[in-house]
Structure formats: structure tokens, C-alpha cells
Write a structure and sequence with these properties.
The longest helix has 17 residues, at about 140-155. Helix content is about 35%, strand content about 20%. By secondary structure, it is an alpha/beta fold. The protein is elongated, with a radius of gyration of 35 Å. Helix 9 (about 275-285) crosses helix 10 (about 310-320) and helix 25 runs parallel beside helix 26 (about 820-830). The protein starts with 20 loop residues before the first strand and ends in a 16-residue tail after the last helix. The strands form eight sheets. It has an eleven-stranded mixed β-sheet, sandwiched between helices. Strands 34-35-39-36-37-38 form a six-stranded mixed β-sheet, with helices on both faces. Among the domains are: about 20-195, no CATH class; about 270-330, 2-Layer Sandwich (Dna Ligase, domain 1); about 520-755, UDP-N-acetylmuramoyl-L-alanine:D-glutamate ligase; about 770-920, Mur ligase, C-terminal domain (Protein-Tyrosine Phosphatase, Chain A, Alpha-Beta Complex), CATH 3.90.190. Its EC number is 6.3.2.29, 6.3.2.30.
Length: about 900
């Protein structure tokens, strides 16, 4: 492709055209993928003639880049030490590699530090590179990659600049790609907008350290830890184990105080009132000073302390009632404000909270002093940083006014000016860790308070003059219980050691040894995936598990269809893993989803590659069977260390894949017994596991070899789906299912019972070797959509016809396959069927109407089939109708559908006498 840059001048007269960088495509991998076990962003670029301009040949490039991004000097790159990347720049490296590092640095500068990336050339495409960058925030990562492309391009000599295909990145184009401050600011906004709060982020980090899967369920703080029936959910520090009644108790401050008082725990005297007059009247029975606060408030909103006079009381009531109709008036306990955090009945952290304040210097005003405090880089908006900026508002002005001050007042040197009544971090307060100082009596009171409320995670506001002495001696007590307490003050106190308060929460949800995982059985291959998945699902249901399954037919729970769709991708896998009723996940994993987004999980317990043959070649850069094998190997490369990789010993590509498979390898093979391959013999001699078909008449025996022991499981003909042992591809699928289940520890008897109950009916396996008798005709509906699948089906057809009647086939192949594959499909069909009806996929898959049928016909004619045996019909349902009317009693009719359910229904409803359809739709060459 020839590209002309908009910039006319050239570099030393050497470049005149074709020098612009072009963005070809992008992907977001949200799990293990063909490039990495980590989530990555991929941007594919074509350097064009920039391939001839590595960094050492570019004048005025390296130094300006380092001036804009001095942090690049810290990148180790392949030298694995600071300065390594700069060394590569000066020695000479390609621009794709430069863009990778710039994207990583921009994310780091935006507060989302990442360091992993790679840039790889695309085989057979000179100048084309896949740039891969890790990310913490998906949107920010993609934007960083886009900005990096523009920034690097802007530093090139004028004749080499320019970016085409920018719109494919889905990122707004910045006005000035060299305005790094603005680029980083926009990235920071993305990170901030998508970031979890500090409490949720700490819990997520603690779960990941334990190897517990994490799934974000919304854009806020609803998180799923674990999978399926072993999952737990949190929303900030509210957990799935937190009783709603306990939350209600903590939220009703009056009720909470009464329950604590009745349990003998120290609380202030007070009452709940609904009006200003009631507050004045009831307060006469209380000792001054008083505290006035809304009954249902939080974060210190509407709270007034040190109330002594009636006028102050009335103003405080008005302030509190702005946040709720009911308010609390109570005696103010003496002491400093502490937050005690109790998790699973034990105190895990204590922080003394200091209200927002400034210290005078005799020169600057209170407002200027606040600005100075807010300049602390630890302070940010809301909960984004360890501390919150102090904001001047009406509550602050009222408090200052009590002391005769305003923001313009200049405090004397050393004078401390309190800016808030309460010590909440959300209003600018600070925290001092006191975990090691709390007296055992105070600790016990806090733990008892959490128990009274019933909270598994409880924040207790505790006033005490000296937390290291018993509160019953010093005065003080509990002023409030908090469900969903924030962790920020404990994670990053202003002084004192940080406390890992998230780990105890995760340990309470998942006791040691538990990681919230359900077994994941992942299956890939060219043919047989759906049937094998259904066999495994049936066996696991027989084992007493609730099975979630995702296949090309849809998402299922215990065999019942929940959602009809092609559900063989990562999104459907996540749907199964989110289902809280699922005990085991069986996931058909297709090539397309792996290429598009990676896997929908981090690792499987059992992964299987059934076979790899030429299908889908020429799509998404996968042009060879070896490259296709590399894609499918992602499933077994990401098997857990103690898991199992199930591989087909009869398939050359599976033998190749075995070198990188995770866990322990279990082979299956149709060639057992005397025909066993040497690879299998060595594997078994070493004590390895294999499931083999040891042949005799009727399909042979299924034999399990493990640890030097040989166990005959069953005869293949006992499995209804093998049609008495003649359907060898279903014997192979059964071998894989046996290997997957028995490797995972399912008893042999359960496996045997599951397979005996598995048929090739439409109900058990829609679109996979479904057979029925229709008006004296035998009809097979099977989703054989590639040459290897049709060859396997042809062997069954040959055995079923037995020399009686005709074999008629309605054959198709998706239009996005290569011409040679479509022609080959027609050639194979010619060797199987007496009469053939070729038809096309409903959408053509990018081919003009009639072209697929023409190529299929070419293959049949090349095989020597006379034209009168070939019929061409575009529409699928018209082709089915024509095939049904063509068949006579005693014939075998084979239909290869795209719309499986609709075609099966059409076959069931067919009645020869009233059949409709336009026979004239047939087109003969």
C-alpha cells in the first residue's frame, strides 16, 4: 500500500513517499493471550519506509525525546538496568520499540505504573509490528499507546512525520502531541475516573496476592472474588458475609447506642429528636458540652461539637437537619478521636484522627496556610490520595467565626487553628497509627461492640484521652459504629506504620488453603469441541456438580439453555464464572475469542487441545496450521501447575504443542494396543497417564493407563453417541472427555455412567451427528463446516449407507475461508455423496452472492462428478427443503446447517405431500 505524507519536505532527499506510520488494528487482551500470560494492549503498526530509519539514523530525535520524557532513562529494557533503553536508542532501535517504551512511561507518569511490554515483527509482513503494552487501566493504556504514536511521530524529521489510521484507536487526537503535561493530565483523568477507591483497591490487591480471581462487576466498587459457587462479593468493605440487619443497626445511631448501652459498653448519654424545640428541651437533662449530629449522617457531615449555649444548640440543630429529619443530641465524651477497625471479631488497626488544622507563622493568612497544606502531594480530591484537600465551606466559616476568625485572619506564630469540628479524613483530617498503643480493655470493648452490631468488618469511633489506658478510668467511650469503614487512614497514616488491614478481610472470606476457585475445564481444537464439552458436562453433572457450560450453541446450566448464542469466547466464559450457582465450568474455547481478547480466565485446571487442522486460515494473520496451533496452545499453556493438559497423541500439532503445555500431560489416542506410538510407550513407562482406544470389532475398548496400571473403562460401542462404535470422531471425543474427568479425580464408574447416558440426540448435542427417521429416509444433521470435519463425517456415512439407497448431502462452508479450502470441501463432498446440494452461509462472510457455491462446484467437478449430480441453491432453508424433497425412502440425507435449531425444526416438520419451496431456485452449471 502506498501512503503519501502530508509533509512535503524530505530528509536529505532520501524520502519522498510511503514514509507515514500507519495504524493497522488494535486489540485489548483481558486475559492470557498468544503474546503473554498477562493482560495487554496490542497496537499493530506499519512503519512503511520508516523501517529504514532506526533511532540512530534519525537526527535530532533521541535527545528531544529524553528531554520530553526524562523518566525513560530509568527503563532497563533488554539490559535490565537503568539506562538500558537509552543505550538502545543510541545504538539504534526501531520506532515500534520506542513507541512501546513511551506508552509505558506515559502511564507511569499518570500514576498508573507499568513496566512490561514487547514489540514483535509480524511474520511475512516487512515493517509491520505488534506493539504490546501492559496496563492497569484499560482506557488509559489505550490512550497512552495512541499518544505515544503521535509523540514519536512528531519528533521525526518533517518528511517522515504523519500517522494514518489513527481513528482505529478510538482516542481523541491531542492538539499538541509534545505537550506531555497535558497528555499526562488527560491520562490521569482517565485513571482517576476508573480507579477503585483506596479501600476496595487494597482488598483487590490482597486477594490477588492470595491468587484469588478478581472480577469487577460495575464501574464503582462492586467486586467478585473467586468464581462460581465459591465466590464472595464486596462493595468497598461491605462483604457478602455482612448481615443486612447489622448494617441497619450501625446506620441507626440511636438504636446502635441503645444496644451497646444494654450490653454494658460505654456510650454517651443522649436522645434522638425531630425538632429544634425538642432538642432544646431534652438537652437540659444532659451535661455540657454537647454533640449534635444527623441520625443517618456520615463523613462528619452536619456534626457540631463543643455546643454549650442555647443559640449554639439551635444553630447546630439546623445544620444537622439539613442532612436528615432526625438528629442526635448527646453529651460530648472527653478525649481524642480514634477509629478502631475490627475484622472477624478482632481489632486489626487503631488510628487517632486529628481534625484539619493549620499552624500560624505570624505572616500568612489562614487561607494561605490552607493552600500550603493542600500543596502536600499526598493530598488530593475526595479519596484519590492518602489525604484529602481542605476545602473552605460554610461549616469551616462557622467554626472560625466562633473564635472571631475569618480565612483572611493571620494567626500568631505557633498558634493552631482548628478548621473542622470532626476529625474525618474526608474533610482534611490526618491520622496517626495507634495500633500498638491500645489497652487490652479498650480492645475488648471494641470487639464486643462489633459483636453487638453483628458486623464482620466494623469501624468504631472511640473517644479516649489516652488510648493506652482503660477508658473506664479516663472517661470516653464509643460514639458511633460504622459499616463499610474506610481503610485509608490505616493503609497510609500521616505518621506511624501502615497496617495491612485488607489481608484479614480476605483471610476471613477465604480461610487458608481456599482461593475461591471452581474447577475450569477448557476445551479447544478444530473439530469436536462442542461434543467433548457436552460429554464432560454430562459426566460432571453425574458426579453431583452444578455445571456451567459455554459452547458454540449457547450458555448452559446443568444442560439447560440459559442463553442461545455462539458462546465460545471470553465474554461467555466470564458469564459462566460469575454465576454463583456453578460448581464447575466447562468452556469451549474457540480461536476467534483467543485472538480477539485472550482467555476469559487466568488459568484452567484441565485444558484440552483435541486436534489442529487447516481451518480459518488466512484470517487475523493466521496463515499456517503451525500458527493456528500456537493460538490453540494458549489454552494448555495456561493450565495450573497442578492441573492437566489433555492432548491428542494422533495429531502432529498436539505433539508440537506438548512442549509448552502446563501442568501434567495426559495423552489420548485411537491408536492404542499394538499400534501405540513410541511417544506413548515412553510416556506410560514413566508412569504417565493416557486414555487409549485399544481396537477390536465394534469400536474397541476404552482403556485408562495411569501410574503403570491398566484399567478397561468400557467398550466404545456402549456410548450411544458413537453409533455402536462406527463414529470414530465421537470415540476420540469420548477419549478426551474421559481423560479430562479422570485426571481431575472423577471416579471411573461415574465417567462410565455419564458416557452411557450421552447420546447424539439434538437434546444432548444439537447439530452434532443428530439422526432421525423421516418418512422412510434417514436424516443426519451435523455441523461439519471444514474439510477435516467432513472427512470424519464421510466415514460414518459410508458405514451407515451399507450399499443401500443414495447418500445425498447438503454441503456448505463459511465464505471467509480460503478459496483452496472451499474447493477442497467440494472435492471431499464429491467422494461421499451421490447427489450434492451446495448452499451458502446467510451472510456470505464477505463474498459476493454465488461465489462460495461456484468454488464448491469447482471442487466437485475437479473430482470428476458430473454436473447433473450438483445442485446449487443460495438460501439455506430453500436448500434444506430441496434436499428433503429429493430424498426417497431408503436414502441417507446429510444436512450441514448454519442455523442449527431452525434447520432441525424444519426437518422435523417436513411432510412430503405438503412440502413447499421453489425448486426453481436450483441453479445448474
Amino acid at each position: 500500500m502506498n501512503r503519501i505524507c502530508r509533509h512535503a519536505p524530505t530528509v536529505s532527499g532520501a524520502v519522498t513517499s510511503g514514509s507515514c506510520l500507519t495504524v493497522n488494528e488494535r486489540s485489548v487482551y483481558r486475559g492470557p493471550n498468544i503474546f503473554s500470560m498477562r493482560s495487554m494492549i496490542r497496537i499493530q503498526i506499519d512503519l512503511g519506509m520508516l523501517e529504514d530509519w532506526p533511532s540512530d539514523r534519525l537526527p535530532f530525535f533521541t535527545e528531544p525525546l529524553l528531554d520530553l520524557l526524562p523518566g525513560l532513562a530509568r527503563h532497563g529494557c533488554s539490559y535490565q538496568e537503568p539506562g538500558g533503553f537509552v543505550r538502545r536508542l543510541r545504538e539504534g532501535t526501531w520506532l515500534g520499540h520506542v513507541i512501546e517504551h513511551v506508552a509505558l512511561e506515559l502511564q507511569t507518569m499518570a500514576g498508573s505504573p507499568v513496566s512490561r511490554g514487547k514489540t514483535r515483527s509480524v511474520k511475512g509482513m516487512p515493517g509491520v509490528y505488534n506493539i504490546l503494552i501492559s496496563y492497569a487501566d484499560e482506557q488509559a493504556g489505550m490512550a497512552a499507546g495512541a499518544f505515544a504514536i503521535l509523540l514519536v511521530s512528531s519528533l521525526l524529521p518533517e518528511g517522515l512525520r504523519g500517522v494514518e489510521g489513527w481513528e482505529k484507536l478510538g482516542v481523541p487526537r491531542p492538539a499538541d502531541p509534545q505537550d506531555v503535561e497535558r497528555l499526562v493530565r488527560s491520562l490521569r483523568e482517565l485513571v482517576r475516573g476508573n480507579a477503585l477507591g483506596p479501600t476496595t483497591a487494597a482488598l483487590v490487591a490482597a486477594a490477588r496476592r492470595r491468587g484469588i480471581p478478581v472480577i469487577r462487576l460495575n464501574e464503582q466498587s462492586l467486586i467478585q472474588f473467586g468464581h462460581g459457587s465459591r465466590q464472595k462479593r464486596i462493595r468497598a468493605s461491605i462483604t457478602g458475609d455482612t448481615p443486612q440487619i447489622a448494617v441497619d443497626i450501625a446506620g441507626d445511631k440511636g438504636l446502635a447506642k441503645r444496644l451497646l448501652d444494654e450490653a454494658g459498653l460505654p456510650v454517651p448519654r443522649g436522645m434522638v429528636v425531630r425538632s429544634e424545640e425538642a432538642a432544646v428541651r431534652e438537652s437540659r437533662r444532659l451535661r455540657r458540652p454537647l454533640v449534635v449530629k444527623p441520625l443517618d449522617g456520615n463523613h462528619g457531615r452536619g456534626v457540631t461539637t463543643q455546643v454549650r449555649e442555647e443559640a449554639e444548640l439551635r444553630a447546630a440543630v439546623a445544620r444537622a437537619m439539613a442532612h436528615g429529619r432526625r438528629i442526635i443530641v448527646e453529651e460530648q465524651l472527653p478525649g481524642h478521636d480514634h477509629r478502631i477497625l475490627v475484622v472477624a471479631g478482632k481489632v486489626v488497626a487503631v488510628a487517632e484522627r486529628v481534625p484539619a488544622q493549620v499552624t500560624g507563622d505570624g505572616v500568612r493568612s489562614i487561607a494561605a496556610l490552607i493552600d500550603q497544606v493542600n500543596a502536600d502531594p499526598r493530598r488530593g480530591r475526595g479519596h484519590e490520595n492518602a489525604l484529602t484537600r481542605i476545602v473552605v465551606d460554610d461549616a469551616m466559616l462557622d467554626l472560625l467565626g466562633k473564635g472571631g476568625l475569618t480565612p483572611d485572619s493571620v494567626p500568631a506564630p505557633g498558634e493552631r487553628v482548628r478548621l473542622r469540628d470532626t476529625a474525618n479524613l474526608s474533610t482534611g483530617g490526618t491520622a496517626v497509627d495507634r495500633t500498638d498503643d491500645i489497652h487490652p480493655d479498650n480492645r475488648l470493648i471494641a470487639e464486643q461492640a462489633a459483636a453487638v452490631a453483628g458486623l464482620d468488618v466494623c469501624g468504631i469511633d472511640f473517644l479516649s484521652p489516652d488510648i493506652s489506658r482503660p477508658v473506664r478510668e479516663t472517661g470516653g467511650g464509643i460514639v458511633e459504629l460504622n459499616a463499610a469503614p474506610g481503610f485509608r487512614m490505616h493503609l497510609e497514616p500521616s505518621s506511624g506504620p501502615a497496617r495491612d488491614v485488607a489481608a484479614p478481610v480476605i483471610d476471613a472470606l477465604f480461610p487458608p488453603g481456599r482461593r475461591g476457585r471452581i474447577p475450569i475445564f477448557a476445551i479447544t481444537g478444530t473439530n469436536g469441541k462442542s461434543t467433548t464439552a457436552r460429554m464432560v458436562g454430562r459426566i460432571l453433572c453425574q458426579h453431583g456438580l452444578n455445571v456451567g457450560m459455554a459452547t458454540t450453541s449457547g450458555v448452559y446450566f446443568n444442560g439447560h439453555l440459559l442463553k442461545e448464542a455462539d458462546a465460545s469466547g471470553p465474554r461467555s466464559a466470564r458469564m459462566v464464572l460469575r454465576n454463583p450457582a456453578v460448581d464447575a465450568a466447562v468452556l469451549e474455547t474457540a480461536r476467534g475469542g483467543i485472538l480477539r481478547e485472550g482467555l476469559g480466565y487466568d488459568r484452567a485446571d484441565v485444558g484440552a487441545v483435541l486436534n489442529v487442522t487447516a481451518d480459518h486460515l488466512g484470517l487475523k494473520g493466521i496463515d499456517t496450521v503451525e500458527a493456528l496451533a500456537d493460538v490453540k496452545s494458549v489454552v494448555v499453556e495456561n493450565v495450573a501447575r497442578r492441573g492437566f493438559s489433555i492432548l491428542n497423541a494422533d495429531d502432529p500439532m498436539c505433539l508440537r504443542i506438548a512442549r509448552h503445555a502446563g501442568g501434567r500431560i495426559v495423552w489420548f489416542s485411537l491408536e492404542g494396543g499394538a499400534r501405540m506410538a513410541e511417544t506413548l510407550r515412553r510416556h506410560l513407562a514413566a508412569g504417565g497417564m493416557a486414555v487409549l482406544r485399544e481396537a477390536d470389532e465394534g469400536g474397541g475398548e476404552i482403556v485408562v493407563h495411569r501410574g503403570g496400571q491398566r484399567t478397561v473403562l468400557m467398550h466404545a460401542s456402549e456410548i450411544p453417541a458413537t453409533l455402536g462404535g462406527i463414529a470414530e470422531f465421537n470415540i476420540a471425543n469420548a477419549l478426551a472427555a474421559v481423560a479430562m474427568c479422570m485426571a481431575h479425580g472423577v471416579p471411573a464408574e461415574t465417567v462410565r455412567d455419564g458416557l452411557r447416558a450421552f447420546t447424539s440426540s439434538f437434546e444432548d448435542s444439537p447439530g452434532r451427528l443428530n439422526m432421525m427417521e423421516s418418512h422412510g429416509r434417514r436424516v443426519i444433521v451435523d455441523y461439519a463446516h471444514n474439510p477435516a470435519g467432513l472427512i470424519a463425517l464421510g466415514q460414518v456415512v459410508d458405514r451407515l449407507r451399507g450399499g443401500h439407497g443414495r447418500a445425498i448431502g447438503m454441503v456448505s462452508i463459511p465464505g471467509d475461508r480460503r478459496d483452496c479450502d472451499i474447493v477442497e470441501m467440494g472435492r471431499i463432498a464429491a467422494g461421499i455423496f451421490d447427489d450434492i446440494i451446495f448452499r451458502e452461509a446467510p451472510d456470505g462472510r464477505g463474498r459476493p452472492r454465488g461465489q462460495t457455491n461456484a468454488l464448491l462446484t469447482q471442487g466437485a467437478l475437479n473430482a470428476g462428478v458430473p454436473m447433473e449430480r450438483v445442485h446449487r441453491i443460495i438460501d439455506e432453508f430453500a436448500a434444506v427443503d430441496a434436499a428433503l424433497r429429493m430424498a426417497r425412502p431408503g436414502d441417507l440425507l446429510v444436512i450441514l446447517p448454519t442455523s442449527v435449531e431452525q434447520v432441525w425444526r424444519q426437518v422435523q416438520q417436513f411432510v412430503p405431500e405438503i412440502a413447499t419451496g421453489d425448486q426453481g431456485a436450483q441453479v445448474h452449471a
